[in-house]
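hey can u check if this looks right to u? its 291 residues, i copy pasted from the old doc so theres a chance i mangled smth
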Amino acid sequence: MTNSISLIAPAKLNLNLNVKYKLKNGYHSLESDVCFLDLYDEINIEVSNLNSIKISDKSTFILKDESILMKTLNCFNREFKNKNKFKITLTKHIPIGAGLGGGSSDSATLLLGLRYFYNRNPHNSKKITLTKLKEIGLKIGSDVPACIASKSLKLSGIGEKLEKIYVPKNYKFLLIYPNKTLSTKLVFDNFDFRSENNLDPMYFNKIKIYNSLKFASQSIEPEITKILKILKSFKKIIAFGMSGSGSSCFGIFKSSKDFVNDKEFEKLKFKKNYFIWHGNKKEFGYNRIVY
């Protein structure tokens, strides 16, 4: 059995987000169409004599708190009475606190990696199913089950209901992150259902592009308003919006030529604090082992 594997943890993009109502347990019932981008963290899992979690110095973004990974490891070990020890190394390329599900994707990918080792251990007669893994993931975070699947999905409930959807390929996504971290809790605390009436949706191949949390997020971080204004200025943009609870915003184009030659894209290069990424969405699925 191999002693080390590396896995991809892709960024999750909320094409839309509809906050329906608040539940008695404090969570919100949501609906969201999501896809996953070819922008990802990497997680290396190596059999070891003790459990450890390290952030690689090759990371684009420095994660100061590894609690989501430790919580995931502890939850997995407790649930399945797992005795194996691992050295876990995270290389972080997804912006932090950006509404791109980086923490959830890291957790989901770690669960898939731990399942890989567990199911290949001949002493474990009962194998862990993907359904069971998603149940464990939901206990860690509402986005974790979707991130385990990492393909185009409609999420509903608190994230436990998943339905496969079609999101066209060969379109280009432009991502802009202002290097401003937003707290999801703070955004929901500032959310007002009455602001829903002001939403003006756009469409991408019959998928409505809108976000219930946009106004709450903008009130906390005005830089989001500036980015959406920049995206609106692109002449050939199909649709644009904010992902999750922010602060990342995205634009959708038919081809790279539709934005790289635009004067607005040239202006973005002078925004030193902005993280700019462009590329494709991708259907990753469950097998994300690199080697």
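Residues 172-279 form a domain with the Alpha-Beta Plaits fold (CATH 3.30.70.890).
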